[in-house]
Amino acid sequence: MTLFTLLFLTALAAGTLLELWLLQRHLRHVAAHRDTVPMDFADKIKLSDHQKAADYTHAKGGIAKLEISFSALLLLLWTLGGGLDLLNRFWLAMELSPLLSGIAIIFSVFFISSLLSLPLSIWRTFKIEAAFGFNRTSVSQFIKDLLTGALLGIMLGGPLLWVILWLMHSAGQYWWFAAWVVWMLFSLVLTWAYPRIIAPLFNRFTPLEEGEMLQRIQGLLKRCGFTSDGIFVMDGSKRSSHGNAYFTGFGNNKRIVFFDTLLDSLSPNEMEAVLAHELGHFRHKHIFKQMLLMAGLSLAGLALLGWLSQQIWFYQGLGVSHPSDANALLLFILAMPVFTLFFSPLGSYLSRRHEFEADAYAVSHSNGSHLIGALVKLYQDNANTLTPDPLYSMFHDSHPPAPVRIAHISQQCGG
To answer: How far is the C-alpha of 132 from the C-alpha of 403, rounded, in Å?
Structure first.
């Protein structure tokens, strides 16, 4: 056993045990507070809804334990278990060009992994989500989404993989910088194209109808100096009763999108407050800052990959006997999350800080009590627990826990 193999196994075991321990802490914490609504929500949320959220959290936690364990086992099978070596031998026997065989190996790994994970996805959608009244996805819609996603992945991922592998083979020592430039351009084009081209493949988007809601939103946009390509309603209800809102795209191709389920739940005042929060992200340049951060991390990651791809111990330590560009890229994608898991709290901290800033912006440009009312309805309608375990939340939640967030908004309101 090489030193890197030992390091990999140690990190994988530590990360898996940490994930399972955090999840168990979370489930115990939620169960311990199941029978009492937190004081700040006692006059807003019924005990039955609070208990439903606790039971929903417990049900999701049960399948999450299986997913954590399965992911660790699958990673071991692909690497030290010889799965990648087996696929390599199969595709090399086809006598394809190095580029085509590399693309075939990478797609094969993701296809097989997705296929093996499919039963858990089906169970989550048609058992857990359905049991709590959230699932509205038909079997035919589920299959259509799978096929559309797979086709889109091939159409977009195929050319990108071809370019990256070609650069690894032909662009010399600093191929990773050229690959980073390609990745950044690809990400920007994808972000620009998503609202008009990609998202409509999965959902129908219709302009928000004339009325009080549209007038209030247009007034808010004017006050905030925000221009967009339109305000749209997405038919999210054809898959789930969960509600959400977001804006997407950049430049002149920005769109504001509301789930139709959200429109059914919130009043015009509350919708205005929710949109003000989303505009807060825009005004504070959170998306731009996230893109800069991801650009820096991806550059560092590709530079690291450029070095690792030349190290024979990198392949041997992960159970691969045939060094190649495709194997280097694949091993990096598979193994890197094992080591980056421990930095999750930092990402959660940055995301929560952005949420606090967006909430403060919403309070200054709409009404804090309406934002609180909207959030309470969203917590209730989506069965989000009000009592997450603090340590689990620090690792996994991009948004502040409900009591902390509501208290922060109340403080901004002067209450």
So the answer is: 23
Domain limits for position 94: 3-200+288-344
Question: Do 187 and 207 lie in a common domain?
Answer: no
Choosing from 129, 270, 272, 278, the catalytic residue is: 278
The structure tokens 């959220």 sit at 53
* Adjacent-strand bridge partners of 257: 232, 246
Query: Widest CA span of the chain, in angstroms?
Result: 71
Query: Per 3-state DSSP, what percentage of the chain is helix, strand, and coil (rounded to 5)?
Result: 75, 5, 20
Residues 214 and 228 in one domain: yes
Co-location of 148 and 227 in the same domain:
no
- Average pLDDT score over residue span 261-265: 80
Question: Do 250 and 128 belong together in one domain?
Answer: no
Question: How does DSSP classify residue 259?
Answer: E
Report the relative pairing of strands 231-234 and 205-207 from DSSP bridges: antiparallel
At residue 251, does pLDDT exceed 70? no
Same domain, 38 and 54: yes
From 310, 344, 378, give the residue that closes a domain.
344
Query: Considering the domain boundaries, does residue 403 fall inside one?
Result: no
Residue 179 lies in a domain: yes
Question: Of the residues 129, 325, 355, 359, which is catalytic?
Answer: 359
Q: What does the H/E/C string look like for 321-364?
A: CCCCHHHHHHHHHHHHHHHHHHHHHHHHHHHHHHHHHHHHHHHH
- Residue 25 sits in the same domain as residue 138: yes
| Structural domain total, the chain | 2
Which residue type is seen at 147? L
d(CA 93, CA 148): 30
Q: What is the pLDDT of residues 345-379, one digit of tens each?
A: 999 999 999 999 999 999 988 888 899 998 998 88
Do 158 and 235 belong to one domain?
no
Q: Which residues pair with residue 231 across a beta bridge?
A: 256
Q: Mark whether 355 is an active-site residue.
A: no
Distance of alpha carbon 277 from alpha carbon 270, whole angstroms: 11
Residue 101 vs residues 67, 167, 321: alpha-carbon distances, Å? 30, 15, 16
Domain boundary among 344, 378, 410: 344
φ, ψ dihedrals at 328, nearest 5°: -60, -50
List the 231-234 sheet strands across, edge first: 205-207, 231-234, 255-259, 245-248
Q: Answer whether residue 300 shows pLDDT above 90.
A: yes
- The reply to whether 359 belongs to the active site is yes
Q: Which pLDDT belongs to residue 205?
A: 87
Give me the phi and psi of 206, to 5 degrees please: -125, 145
